[in-house]
Write a structure and sequence with these properties.
830 residues, alpha/beta, Rossmann fold, seven-stranded mixed β-sheet, 32 helices, 24 strands, 35% helix, 12% strand, globular
């Protein structure tokens, strides 16, 4: 028996779940749509999964081949589709059409990853005829417009297009894609945010939105650490693949991962490895500086780590507050004491295998208990009943507009957010809220500016050097900057007054920091009972690791992402796990945006705010749940496969002829190719010359067995052609392929130029640069204009503290003299 009723209400007298009144029709078949639907279902939505006759092919996927249940459903499907409903229909039949139209009449959202909005009978027009307030979220590789809109693509080729693949690899080897389907999960996060943003606006305007989401655009900034902006700020465009120093290192009994970002962390790391003399070498203070001495530094670091056990190094590094992690994998993660104590892993209700719980913990409503993923067609009869009245809503009444918002406004116009975050994960959440129309106030301190400002292309010898941080500039567009010293009571009092004027607040420090400031939910809710407060500590608010710090690399190392990324062959050093290079930071920020929107939905229903705990590590674990579940069921430990795939064959990166053309084409030297089915293989065989031996490889298993031979055949063909020419030839024949775009050259891609994904903005200090926009369009073919440049430090003190809080000019002057506010770091003041 289900533990929630039809509206998603939890047992007993608990408050309803935030999305309890939302019905979603999920017509997608890919992983991005599945994760978007999971996020919505976990928050209480009723998600109707529409499946073709025979079911979603993803049901039959098993990484090991041994984790299918008696109904033929794999662990990944059962993880992603818990708490949903399955409707098996043929959309070409009269009965199938009526069923889908009947669901349209009661739904508020449609998820689609096959451009089904163009269908005359069941597309966007049919939805709007029945529910004008419902929104349609389209998830496609390149978007629904532009010259590439109909090209085939998948996770592997999109990583190549966006610049991610070019950033991974070791000297003398082919570039490497990051392991896992992290781009698809990123697209799913954006889709869920698009869905709730469109719904927020529809509830005010009475009109739904059509949202055009491009996976390439979702991945371009998040998989490359906004690499194009780094190229623009630095003037350096050609950057070879590299590894962090220190990064993932061998130990006496395994591996360990470090993340040394700040100058203080480097100073402390030198003490850890018993080389204090290295602290005196200024060229080693930055990541880029250490890379110039890569051979020397790796020998020093690994000479030390190989002499010590992983446990010993973890203990020593934690004492010095150096971000550190064991290299997690599917077999090891459930045994970690912190994750066990916090009960992060739970049993799936259909199969009893381990999986991560929902990554957030609100104080205002209980989590929705997972319901078993539906068996194929389990709810078809319910949909057929709905189809009996396909022309009008059944049991669901479209809401009346509740405000003056126009359907053409940005979705979150009128929302004000207090952004107390730093580095990349938290700020990216505020950044997305800003691009969606919210007013975002970024809080820093002259004693301690946002650490990402210090990742600058300038040196401390340059004036205003902290205003030349590319990641900061690209992750804080349109925000307002206020400086407050929160170590003093007056600074805390001003922050509480600001919170009283905001709808939401986000912070991403370790759990101890806000405690030290004396800022807690009791004081914030007293200042603003309707506040939505999202907290993003690295490891949560309790547990043995609560006070540890963590960056993107830390989470990739711990969660199992790094374990899945790397070469499957070669020397011991070549086969070391590798970082995925940062996507976990923006993925955590996107989860924070989703939680903010859930909190707002809860407030709309109850009139009360909420505190939502969102541990960074748990957002990462939710994106790599499959290896944990797979090991629990089959005993198989999923690990690195290089550029090859367990699901697709052949798949790889192949050398090409000397490049020609301009921009990215001038520098692309590799071809990425990924065959998903037999039809694509037949097409590839014909393009490559129609060899009889290749035609005989008419099944994925046969091709996987001959992968080495196939690789040689493809490489011989690609070596005679420039990468872009080879990719176009394959794409025109329906074969997923890509030229491996150089790390910092995504802005040169004609598809992104055609869709206006980049926009040039003037920054008052850093100058004129092109920045990434949102990967989704709301009803318009062109992108919404970006809200403006990132703020300079303390730029809006007078506007916010004076204009919003009403402080006088005399009061502001006193605060500046006391250094409670300011516009220069204290160490740069004369």
């Amino acid at each position: 028996m289900s533990e929630t009723d039809d509206t998603g209400r939890a047992p007993g007298d608990a408050p309803p779940l935030p999305l309890a009144d939302l019905h979603v029709v999920d017509r997608s078949l890919g992983l991005a749509g599945a994760y978007a639907g999971k996020l919505l279902a976990d928050a209480g939505a009723t998600v109707w999964k529409i499946e073709p006759p025979g079911g979603d092919p993803a049901r039959r996927w098993s990484a090991s081949g041994r984790s299918l249940d008696a109904d033929g459903d794999g662990v990944l499907f059962r993880y992603l589709h818990a708490s949903k409903r399955s409707v098996e229909v043929d959309p070409d039949s009269e009965e199938g059409r009526r069923s889908i139209l009947g669901l349209y009449a009661r739904c508020g959202l449609v998820l689609d990853d096959a451009s089904l909005h163009r269908d005359e009978a069941l597309g966007l027009a049919a939805l709007r005829a029945r529910r004008p307030d419902a929104s349609w979220i389209s998830i496609t590789p390149f978007g629904t417009t532009g010259p590439w809109r109909d090209w085939p693509a998948n996770e592997f080729t999109l990583q190549a297009w966006c610049g991610s693949t070019a950033s991974h690899g070791r000297a003398g080897r082919e570039p490497l894609a990051a392991g896992g389907e992290l781009g698809e999960y990123t697209g799913g996060l954006y889709a869920a945010i698009a869905a709730l943003s469109a719904r927020e606006q529809a509830l005010r305007s009475g009109q739904g939105r059509f949202v055009d989401l491009s996976l390439l655009e979702a991945m371009a900034p998040t998989f490359t650490n906004v690499a194009h902006v780094w190229g623009s700020f630095s003037g350096t465009w050609e950057v070879p693949p590299s590894e962090e120093i220190p990064g993932i290192e061998p130990t006496r009994d395994g591996h360990i991962g470090f993340c040394v970002f700040t100058g203080q962390q480097w100073q402390d790391f030198c003490l850890l490895i018993e080389r204090p003399d290295l602290r005196e070498r200024p060229e080693l203070e930055t990541m880029m500086g250490r890379l110039t001495c890569a051979e020397e530094m790796r020998e020093i670091v690994r000479g030390y780590t190989r002499r010590h056990s992983t446990a010993d190094l973890l203990e020593r590094a934690e004492l010095l507050r150096i971000p550190v992690a064991p290299i997690g994998h599917g077999a090891m993660l459930p045994s970690l004491d912190h994750l066990r104590e916090r009960e992060v892993f739970v049993r799936n209700p259909r199969g009893d295998f381990l999986q991560p719980r929902v990554p957030y913990r609100p104080n205002a409503w209980p989590p929705r208990p997972f319901e078993p993923a539906p068996r194929l067609g389990a709810h078809t009869a319910m949909a057929l009943e709905a189809g009996g009245d396909a022309e009008a809503p059944r049991g669901v009444t479209p809401p009346s507009p509740s405000g003056p918002a126009a359907a053409t406004d940005l979705p979150l116009a009128g929302l004000r957010v207090l952004d107390c975050t730093a580095f990349w994960a938290g700020p990216w959440g505020g950044h997305v809220l800003s691009l969606l129309g919210a007013e975002v106030i970024h809080v820093e301190a002259v004693q301690r500016p946002d650490g990402m400002r210090l990742g600058s292309v300038k040196t401390p010898a340059d004036d205003l050097w902290w205003e030349f941080g590319p990641t900061f500039a690209a992750s804080n567009l349109g925000k307002r900057s206020v400086t407050l010293d929160l170590t003093r009571d007056e600074g805390v009092d001003l922050l509480l007054r600001l919170a009283g004027q905001c709808d939401a607040m986000i912070e991403n420090f370790s759990a101890r920091v806000m405690d030290q400031f004396g800022i807690d939910w009791e004081r914030l809710s007293a200042a603003n009972p309707g506040l939505v407060y999202v907290r993003m500590p690295a490891f949560g608010l309790d547990g043995p690791w609560r006070d540890r710090v963590g960056f993107a690399q830390t989470m990739e190392q711990l969660s199992g992402m790094a374990w899945l990324t790397g070469y499957a062959d070669g020397s011991e050093q070549e086969r070391l796990p590798m970082n995925a290079r940062g996507p976990t930071d923006p993925q955590a920020g996107l989860h924070a945006v989703f939680c903010t929107l859930l909190g707002l939905a809860h407030r709309r229903r109850t009139g009360r705010g909420a505190q939502i705990e969102l541990p960074f590590v748990e957002t990462a674990l939710n994106l790599v749940a499959e290896p944990i579940a797979e090991h629990d069921v089959s005993g198989e430990l999923l690990t690195r496969t290089g550029n090859r795939s367990l699901a697709r064959a052949p798949q790889g990166v192949y050398p090409c002829a000397e490049p020609s053309g301009v921009g990215a084409e001038r520098e692309a030297r590799w071809l990425a190719l990924s065959i998903e089915d037999d039809a694509q293989w037949i097409a590839l065989v014909e393009v490559l010359g129609g060899a009889d031996w290749a035609r005989a490889l008419d099944a994925p298993g046969k091709r996987a067995a001959e992968h080495d031979r196939i690789d040689g055949w493809i490489a011989a063909w690609s070596a005679r052609r420039p990468a872009m020419e080879a990719a176009r030839t394959l794409l025109e024949n329906g074969i997923p392929a890509a030229a491996v775009t150089p790390w910092r050259r995504a802005a040169d891609l004609e598809q992104l130029q055609a869709r206006g994904f980049f926009e040039t903005i003037d920054h008052p200090v850093a100058g004129r640069h092109a920045y990434y926009g949102l990967p989704m369009r709301f009803d318009r073919e062109d992108a919404h204009g970006l809200p403006g440049p990132a703020p300079t430090l303390g730029q809006h003190n007078e506007e916010i503290l004076g204009g919003l809080l009403g402080l006088t000019s005399e009061e502001l002057d006193r605060l500046r003299v006391d250094r409670l506010i300011g516009d220069r770091p204290v160490w740069a003041q004369t």
